[in-house]
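Can anyone check this?
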Amino acid sequence: MKRISATVLSVALALATACSDKNPSGPVDDGNKLTPAGMVVSDPLAGSSRSSSIGVNGSASLATSPLAYVSAVPGTFPGGLSAAIRNKTKSGTSQSVQVTDGGFDPVHIEGDVGDELAITVALGGGGSTTAMVKVPARRPPTIVRTNPAKGRTDVALNVQIIVVFSEPVNQSSVTSSSLTLLEDGITSVKGAVVVSADGLSAQFLPDGPLKPQTNYELAVNQEIVDLEGDALAERSTVAFTTMVGTVGTMVITSTTTATTDSDIDPDGFDLIIDGKPAETIGVNGTLTIADIIGGWHTVTLSGVTGNCTVSDGPTRKVRVVSTAIANVVFAVNCERRLDTQLSGLLAFVSERDGNPEIYVIHPDGTGLVRLTNNAAADVDPAWSPDGKRIAFSSNRDGGSDIYVMDADGSNVVRRTDTGSYNESPAWSPDGRKLAFSSLRNGELGIYVMNVDEDWSKPTRVGFDRGWMGYPSWSSDGSKIAFSSDWRAFDTLFDSYIMNADGSDITELVAGPFFWVDGLRFYFQPAFSPDGRKVAMVVCPYAWDNCYPKSSVAVANADGSGLKTIVDAGGFSRPTWSPDGSTIAYSTSICRNCGGSLRYTTADGSKTGLIFPDGYSPSWRR
């Protein structure tokens, strides 16, 4: 373990700054004059620059902090896989989004007028490109994309007609007169208009299937306004033509493989097609559906037991055409469950019911219980040392704050009130304090507060600048491990250790300084129960939450002896079993199918599945 040298740091930072100034990694925006064509950044929604806003239903609401919405129309970033968006002015955490067809739908990030945003796009052929844009003072909403796209001539008769806006719109302004579908440009098609809960998209639902080989025109009028009353920048029309009317056949096959001692449900699985009542298919079975209307259909395999995963995810988009059979194959892999003799419970996050909620489960994958239930995102669960409470982060009251609840999900108490961004709570071993990350004064730092004092004033510990996250207490409460970009702001992310009061900061594990040396980044350190080891996530790059390449590694408490024990996918948040023999972590097998909870022995000799739909685990001791 090396003590930090101010001289080395100053030289390193000077080099990083020089390289950055002379060789910018992408087009630099100057008052948005050089914003890449197709990039859209909204004006700030609520916050310091405006005291209030209009809610999506037209009602007044007091906002906690300004948000800017960032999006890119299809074709903006050819070959892009994902985009990481970060407010460079406020040094906040990044938001990640998948890039599809060279663009991405709106994602919000804290930002006020003039703030500089960096959009780093990972490319399919390797490498990345970065664009710099600024948050404008005022900008009317625009249309990011539509489905179907303009000019399509092979549109399915059961197509989902969707319009995606660049920022939330007022729901009351989206009506059958402001969003219409015309047949041959003349006759209005009967149907309903539905706006998403976040106001970012609207869908036109025809009363029945569209006619085959017919010209249609989707009209989006300027009667649609954003939450501040600004109308769409222009009226838009989207012309498209439907395909020849067809019916076809769909053949669905399930194939299941299993390791020794794995459990397979003999009753098979459920198949859900386009949201209709489920049909049963065997674990190694085939289901044929004839005379199904031509076009795109959604097929979902459900009823999969907790120790099984579905390759490429449980949902498929399938196109049916005449004269051909549409084949759908679900490959299911079942693994042995974790040793049932291990004690404790795992708290984790799952989006299985539509949004991030906190659940608990036994280490063998049984006994699933949902603890939170609301429209907000409840994340980052952390067990108290006595196992009676869980701290977590939630945006249920506007900003992201730290909350504490009883182990059964009751008695939820809010513990921070900054109207900003707070995450990753970690309990001190005596259960009296919480360390957490918080965005304050433009810096994401680590703070410590007394957990049972109402609105306790937290104390910042560690570095006074830069990004700091993922605190973890040592077993005796004397040390806190964390991740930081101190060596080179926004560029290098390493793991550090400090005294609980923030003094005596030393490097725990740090990677090479230069890109040519093969960079490594170290996130989410976690002390073992006896304090002798530290598990962490190792990534070859820092964007997109490390997806799809990351690993879980273990080092001695002084940072020596670092050893990779299992490959993962993305941020895995390793957590130790009470006896220190096993580590639970999360991983993702594909970009769109969410995470799964897995386990590995501390030496990496055995691995397996705990639960197929979850992430961010915390093991009760």
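Reply from J.R.: I decoded it. The chain has four domains: 31-134, 143-241, 248-334, 346-619.
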